[in-house]
Amino acid sequence: MIKVAVCGALGKMGKEVVDAVNNAEDMELTAQIDLMGENTYKSIEEAYNAAKFDVVIDFTQPKSIYENAKYCLNNGIKIVVGTTGLKDEQIEELRALSAAKNTGCLIAPNFSTGAVLMMMFAKQAAKYFDNAEIIELHHNQKKDAPSGTAIKTAKLMSEEKASFMKGNCAEVETIEGARGGTSYSDIKIHSVRMPGYIASQEVIFGSSGQIMTIRHDSMDRKCYMQGVLLATRHVVEKNDFIYGLENIL
User: Fold this and answer.
1) Would you list the domain boundaries of the chain?
2) In terms of DSSP bridges, do strands 78-81 and 55-58 run parallel, antiparallel, or are they unpaired?
3) Angle between helix 113-125 and helix 148-158 axes, rounded to 10 deg
4) Is 203 helix (H, G, I), strand (E, B) or coil?
5) What is the third-level CATH fold of 113-218?
6) Is 90 exceeded by the pLDDT of residue 185?
7) Is residue 234 annotated as part of the catalytic site, yes or no?
8) What is the pLDDT of residues 54-90, one digit of tens each?
9) To which H or E segment does residue 120 belong?
């Protein structure tokens, strides 16, 4: 039986993870961690001292995830990270720490299998188009922008081409930020925050005479749970470092 602690257990994603773990035949929920709860542990350290577990599933906040992950790896606790907002250098530091401590760590910007396929399709399409931009749309309580999924998508696409702004004229923004943020290989990312959305993303490719759009929409947070449980089982069995769910599908 895999003993699991959920960090951020009272958040929208955290509650779904708690239900998913409770319904998994091979898992046991041994600790719920959340600063806001009366009957929850307030830190991973407090929870681990009281109730030993094999793996932490973290859906907290961008400002806390890096320290949470470092604590887990330094103490031999395997971790699945669903919180976005980590910087490239932080990811590389966690990769090195995971190897040094021989402790499994899986970080995924998105646990939806459909969203992962969308990223994989975008990487393949990037070979055939010289122009591309990304629009990501989330609920207005999401604190980081752009989304981790958009950043990961751009990074995958950049492996195929050095720039996706072929033939663009010199641009002048009359309102700063109108053209979005520039990411890997000059890919523009536009972030929308609006009540009513959960998570959506469009990758738009263009060339002379044609436009192709790859889009994924998450309509319910339950769509992430299959990927979360898959990732949890992986880190318990392996001691490797994984960035992106596509690497274990």
Assistant:
1) 2-107+222-247, 113-218
2) parallel
3) 30
4) strand
5) Dihydrodipicolinate Reductase; domain 2 (3.30.360)
6) yes
7) no
8) 999 999 988 899 999 999 999 999 999 998 889 999 9
9) helix 113-125
